[in-house]
Specification:
This protein has 472 residues and is an alpha/beta fold. It has 2 domains: 3-246 and 442-468, 3-Layer(aba) Sandwich (Aldehyde Dehydrogenase, Chain A, domain 1); 251-427, Aldehyde Dehydrogenase, Chain A, domain 2. 40% of the residues lie in helices and 21% in strands. The strands form 6 sheets. A 7-stranded mixed beta sheet has the order 14-17-18-13-12-19-20, sandwiched between helices. A 6-stranded mixed beta sheet has the order 9-8-7-10-11-21, with helices on both faces. The N and C termini lie far apart (63 Å). The protein binds NADP nicotinamide-adenine-dinucleotide phosphate (NAP). NADP nicotinamide-adenine-dinucleotide phosphate (NAP) is lined by residues 145-149, 154, 172, 174-175, 204-206, 209-210, 213, 224-226, 229, 232-233, 245-248, 279, 373, 375, 401, 442, 447.
Length: 472
Amino acid sequence: MKMYVAGQWIDKAEKIDVVNPYDNAVIDTVPRAGAADVERALESAVRGARVMAGLPGYERWKILKRAAELIEARNEALGRLISLEEGKIISEGRAEARRAVETIMGSAEEAKRIHGETIPLDGDPGGGKRFGVTLRVPCGVAVAISPFNFPLNLVCHKVGPALAGGNAVVIKPATDTPLSALKLTEILLEAGLPAEGVQCLTGLGGEIGDALVSDRRVRKITFTGSRDVGERICRLAGIKKVTMELGSNSPVIVMPDADLDKVAVAVTATGYANAGQVCISTQRVLTAGKVYGDFLDALTPRVAALTTGNQLEEKTKVGPMVREKDALRVEEWVKEAVSTGARVVVGGQRQGAIYAPTVIADVKPEMRISCDELFGPAVAVTPFNTVDEAIALANDTVYGLSAGIFTEHLEWAMKFAREVQSGNLHVNWGPQWRADLMPYGGLKESGFGKEGPRYAVEEMTELKMVVFHLSS
Ligand code: NAP
């Protein structure tokens, strides 16, 4: 495919192959953008921001609503494309395309709801003859940098609220999975978006990222990706609004009164979806010593039943990881844990980019598979004795994106909600659950700022205060 810069679909002699992670077959190529393309995109985005700021909310609503309808009509093709470039199983590809409809439609609705408030300045000792009102205005040029693991929906979570808020947006999709973002750009233009309201630059983050994020014309950066890249962007961004949606090693606490079958179902669903490459995947299962063995017995057959293979075949339950080197990382971390006292209960084998769904028990908190972000299809199980110890273990990490607890005991659930340092908390389900109506984002080094259209629109707009100084 071509990339979209300054109102044109353009190609370049230098290209990047996009491959199917299952067999490394080249499915398409995209241009490899350089510094001159970044400059053209930003110049154009400045013009686009003026056009977008002048577009009434009703028009922004209409464009986004039409885009949502087009995404819905193309569900099968988009689902297949997501699955092909990312490696997730086809049913997950279709589900992601359906979620994109919700995200863009939710953003459309927000385009009609952007408002300020009157401020009762007469409550101030010197405010009697003043009238105050706040206005929400677009930031201007927003740069949206997205990761590989949800190549359509995570782009929608940025682009939808940015456009709803009246900004121009420059998309920089992940190099492994740029095709879905390019298709979304096509759809937005077909839906009537002004030509310079969007740019989609394909190219290596390591080559074009610094120029994009440090440029003063950019007033908003919204980034989803790894902690280390996020930190670099924060250092370079300077004084501009930034949203960071970063990584995690999400914990689940299994209390002694938990329904173990329910926990096993939830851990299987939330630990291995998209081959574990979800920022809120269950990575650590902290299990009460009293039910430790019974929980492993309940979980093992469910994980063993997760068949691996070609992601496009309906029978496959877990597809390849996005690159073989990621599967090698998972293999290395599992081996390292085993060499320091953990044991593989099920899984533990790798074939190319496919890593078998794995349960690893007797994991110590200091092992990499527990304390770093694994981002792969292995779940680490660790015993604990008291609720305080479980909460301390859950919090013993730089991350804080999502967490779950299984218990019927209200006091334990409330203690978990109050004391676990995490942006999202789930009682009686795993950490991997999200609806677009919720404010979604991490604490600590999992980032800052919230997504979910209602909250993201606030991040994509600035608040102005207007004071009328009246004479009577
Ligand atoms: P990544 O390596 O950090 O890449 C994310 C994006 O940043 C890609 O578009 C990448 O481009 C770009 N990038 C790389 N270097 C850059 C630089 N110097 N300046 C600007 N941009 C740069 O992450 P990933 O491997 O794609 O995704 C996995 C990570 O994302 C995990 O840590 C996961 O937890 C996190 N994630 C978080 C959430 C959340 O909501 N909190 C959701 C999904 C994923 P290239 O592809 O060209 O390198």
